[in-house]
Amino acid sequence: MSVWLNKPPRMPLPSPTRPTRLKDHVSATLRNPGSVRHFSMADWDLLIRQARNAGLLARVRHVLDQHNMVKHIPNEARWHFDAAATLADKQQLAVRWEMSQISQALVKLAIPVIVLKGGAYVMAALPAAAGRLFNDIDILVPREQLGPVEAALMLAGWNATGLSDYDQRYYRRWMHEIPPMQHIKRATVIDVHHAILPDTARYHPDSGKLRSRAVAVEGMPGVYVLSTEDRILHSATHLFHDGELPHGLRDLTDLDLLLREATEASDFWPRLTARADELQLSRSLSYALRYLRYFLDTPIPDSVFAALHAAAPNRLTLILMDAIFTRVLAPAHASCADVLTPAARLAAFVRAHWLRMPAHLLIPHLFHKAFIRSAPDNDVPKPA
Predict the structure, then answer these.
(1) All domains of the chain, ordered by start, with CATH?
(2) pLDDT per residue over 218-266, tens digit each?
(3) In terms of Cα–Cα distance, which of 152, 155, 154, 160 is closest to 107?
(4) I need a surface site. Which of 18, 59, 156, 332 has the fewest CB within 10 A?
(5) Exposed, middle or buried: residue 84 (CB in 10 Å: 0-12, 13-18, 19+)?
(6) Distance CA 11, CA 35 (A)
(7) H or E segment and range at residue 302
(8) Degrees (nearest 5) of the Cα angle 225, 86, 80?
(9) What integer pLDDT is reported at residue 22 of this predicted model?
(10) 3, containing H or E segment
(11) Which residue in 274, 298, 295, 276 sits closest to 285, CA to CA?
(12) Is the pTM of this model over 0.85?
């Protein structure tokens, strides 16, 4: 508490400047929904293309609806938004159904099953569920229960996807999850985690601490979600430890919605920064808050950046990170890219793997993925 009460706030380093040459209509619309009043048909066309690539078409429609701006969508464009909203609603129903099936499959194990990320937003009925699209369902279980959990899910119809022998070993030896499991009939995918970062990663948030504050989901015995602070920290950590970010802006909007809801509690920011320090996740949080300001104008007090100052990178590192993340977190569309974007994506990929494992493991792994990739990998929805 001394950081907040006894020390004058230190100003954060200047935010990166938004380049005028790029047209990120998605972020601009989310920052200022009223701007669509002045959109031309070309602007609407570009917004739809960018938002679809970012997985945000349904969320953009939701935001426009909240601000009474849906009436400004031209008839020729509206069906794109309406179809995306219908799909998002259908997926939310599917997530609730799948979680009931997962809960039933694991009920005899009598263990807490914590649903993560987008599934958690749906199960906890959070604003961040609005317009959210899904690729899979992520759950967190105790490490010592991985074997029984996998066996129970297999009996219920989920099986490991067609990974190569190398990727199977990679997941089971180094990763914080077992290989993805896909249902034999419904084709839904579950990622079963025992931690939120690999054992070989530079940071080691204690999974036991995460489970200790988990909150029960009403009406679904045995199913939990992470606490308010922990779900924000997990979202930030996942975002800034992931080397492939086609939906990075979607995840950033998740964080924006989670934070805007959480700040209704007066003591939220001190609790968040203290928890980040406890879980060794302050650096990821500092990055998340910086780019939330940049892309979405999320209201974050300067005192929060002051509290995270010790964990923030130095100025030179931050300049490099700005060059990378202002590009890779933008919609994955040609209109949001420049000549440096491919290099930024490669840098983000290498950085994420560098954070996951030390050099003596990383170099052989990247060599194998680049040159010795086996045929089954081509059909895997989520390669290692």
Answers:
(1) 2-379 (3.30.460.40)
(2) 989 999 999 999 999 999 999 998 867 788 999 999 999 999 999 988 8
(3) 152
(4) 18
(5) buried
(6) 30
(7) helix 302-307
(8) 125
(9) 65
(10) helix 2-5
(11) 276
(12) yes
